[in-house]
Amino acid sequence: MRLAYISGFLFLLLAGCASYSGHGLVPGQSTAKDVEATMGTPRERITSANGDTIWYYPHQPFGRQMYAVSIAPDGRMRSIEQTLTEQNAARLVPGTTTRAQARELIGPPYESSYFPRQKREVWSYTMYNVARQEFFLHVQFSDDGLVREVIMIQDYHKEMGDTRP
Fold first, then answer.
1. Alpha carbons within 13 A on the beta-carbon side of 130
2. Distance between CA atoms of residues 110 and 87, nearest Å
3. Which of 60, 118, 126, 132 is the most buried (most CB within 10 A)?
4. Residue ranges per structural domain of the chain
5. Smallest Cα–Cα separation from 98: which of 54, 143, 147?
6. Would you tell me which CATH number, out of the four given (3.30.930.10, 3.30.1450.10, 3.40.50.150, 3.40.50.720), belongs to the domain 83-165?
7. Tens place of pLDDT for every residue, the chain, 165 residues?
């Protein structure tokens, strides 16, 4: 009987994770209603440069994923992707990428800070690198709205068994 409870709990836990990533949604077929029924209400919605609406589903700061669902103007899901990747971090070009472009590319930060002496706004994220090691991603913006620095720092607290966030 106890095994049945544990199995049921694990099934529900895995089912919740699967829906969080959009498992079962089909680009070009699934609608915005399907996305919301599967993944819930997005934390943020923005209109991209191509006219699509992008819905963001962060799992920050303790999770290390950010799912972006692109909804075409006709209400159909165009794509779904995990945005917190090393490839996307590399696409943030200091002196060129704007705040709006960064927001569209990687999504809303879990934390935003401002350093008045440096005149820098810093967006913070948690993510994995390609080897599935845990990292912090910090994107710094100057007052003119351009990316100035992109910093990935390994989360050594997790590696050492530290349970602090």
1. 5
2. 20
3. 126
4. 1-82, 83-165
5. 147
6. 3.30.1450.10
7. 554 444 444 444 444 444 578 889 999 999 999 999 999 999 999 999 899 999 999 999 888 999 999 999 999 999 999 999 999 999 999 999 999 999 999 999 999 999 999 999 999 999 999 999 999 999 999 999 999 999 999 988 765 555 555
